[in-house]
Amino acid sequence: MIELDVVPTACCADERPDLIDAGRAADLAEVFKALADPTRVRLLEHIARTEDGTACACHLPDALGISQPTMSHHMQKLVKAGLVTREQRGRWAHYTVSPDAMAGVRGLLDSVTR
Amino acid sequence: MIELDVVPTACCADERPDLIDAGRAADLAEVFKALADPTRVRLLEHIARTEDGTACACHLPDALGISQPTMSHHMQKLVKAGLVTREQRGRWAHYTVSPDAMAGVRGLLDSVTR
DNA sequence: CTCATGTATCGACATATGTCAATACGAGGC
DNA sequence: GCCTCGTATTGACATATGTCGATACATGAG
What we know:
- The structure is a homodimer.
- The first copy, chain A, is of the alpha+beta class.
- Chain A has a single domain, classed as Orthogonal Bundle (Arc Repressor Mutant, subunit A), CATH 1.10.10.
- Chain A is built from 5 helices and 3 strands; from the N terminus they run ααβααββα.
- In chain A, α2 packs across α4.
- The longest helix of chain A is centred in the first third of the chain and has 13 residues.
- Chain A is elongated and about 60 Å long.
- Chains A and B meet through α1, α2, β1, β3 and α5 of A and α1, α2, β1, β3 and α5 of B.
């Protein structure tokens, strides 16, 4: 294959795919933002690894070495991003992974690693 | 399948997968943090969509409606996270997607959507 | 050499985020 | 009813982040 020399007086901008929709990018960014913290990454993967994708939170502050209000703050972030759903069972809160939430992430991943 | 009733005086904590390694979570969080902004999501996908996964940046500030220093700031973040690499060609900077950088993201994605 | 172009850096500003102590609230046992 | 347990919320604090104007720097043309 012949590789053309770069024309020194112009950038290689012949190929310019359109930028993706700002709204869709904002949605994706919300999901990424929800996982832009090591504690929340560990929380999501912990829940995902259970047999049925559901876990309660009561033991997690100690396991993670964080305070209970911080724990609550992080879980709220994951719920708000749609990554998990919350169910109150008696006095305990149970969280379940929402598999669909990362569909957009998979789309981006496929683009990047095609 | 018989579904056992939840014991009202205890949480469903019989199954407790180990939390993933804090170091690995921190690495993943860095990648997610790099994409926790709509502008950077658009930038990465734009570059990924080119024929050879390479694009220059000169036209992007206008296309994105942001200033040139902001553009430079965002590209630096993507480079620092290892998502793209930068090559100077004359006066132009060209960016190339690093497909391997999102391997950890794919691992998490597979966990969440199994 | 000067000048133009493209990009990086600095500094300032406003906003966002992670943390925890204190406290409020709801469920459940007695 | 009171008390305990588990969780949510508030407020304060420190740090992180996105923005742009001004400026510095490198490349390239003349």
